[in-house]
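Long-time lurker. I teach an intro course on protein structure, and each term I like to show students one example going from raw sequence to a predicted 3D structure in token notation. This year I'd like something fresh instead of my usual example. Would anyone be willing to generate the tokens for the chain below so I can use it in lecture? Attribution to the forum is fine with me.
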Amino acid sequence: MSSTKSVLRVENLVTRFKSVERGKWVKAVDGVSIELRPGEIVGLVGESGCGKSTLGRSIVGLERPQSGRILLDDIDLSGLGGRKLRETRRAIQYVFQDPYASLNDRQTIGEAITEALVIIGIHDRTRQRRRVHELLDQVGLPDTVAERYPRELSGGQRQRVAIARSLAVEPRVLICDEPVSALDLSIRSQVMNLFLTLQKDLGVACLFIAHDLALVRQAASRVYVMYLGKIVEQGTSLDVYERPTHPYTRALLASIPSADPRIEATREVPALLGDIPSPTNPPSGCRFRTRCPSAVEACAVAEPPTVWVGPGHGAACIFAAQIRATEVVPQPEPQRLPQQLSA
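-- Reply from a regular --
Happy to contribute to a lecture. Here you go:
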């Protein structure tokens, strides 16, 4: 692991919701620990419903965890309250998935960004206008966008505005919840290139929540793989993608289609057994065991510990060391991102 001090650290976080079934709880996030270091993009991947978004929303305070700690520069946010908590939480901002729902259609873009500036104490109109134009330029949009309404912008432009609004309070961490999934493929690359630029120029740490494994591989330096509320594998992108150690990670990577139709026509995709178990009643022991082709009786006895198979590379599987020794699985082709942003 790098010796660089973490800007954000989540320790044993638990976020659960009351189920519609009387007396039961949805275990959305169950004992998750992750960290982000300054200026890095970290991927969080997994199937829909695995708890990725709940984890992100818990970090920024949109959901209330039942236990665990969220530390910003070693300051435990759960121990803060009132004004101090609001001031500290400004350092962690959220970029929502749907750019068509995250902006108020009754506000101009300039008004939406100005609201964030007022929060940090910028009340002078001249300073506000100047800062709005600086932020729009930072995300590759012209000054004229400030006078327009969200309905006049494309999806990609709206998402850039959402990013600009998040940057207005000068955060140190961005939680990006599927920020490009609602965009066309060509626009996705432009927005992803923007995240890479912000990482380089501003040193903002980014937790990038996504189900597009190929896109995460291109952008993230480290990756966490989540399944049914648990982190099942973690490590550098190079390690996780080239030497996946958890059966679930291997299945995810093997399911990625190839861009070459000839390869795709002959490719064999290993099928996972059954459906995702109910989060109100997860299996005993390893939560993936009911779908895992390698599961044995021991997998049902106790929750598997994280087995470290390399520097910073761990998997919650009793067979991690044996899987590590097997052949490298075929890799998804990385998406090529343009070198320059377009407005």
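Some talking points for your students: The chain has two domains: 8-91+171-324, 106-164. The two ends are 38 Å apart (CA to CA).
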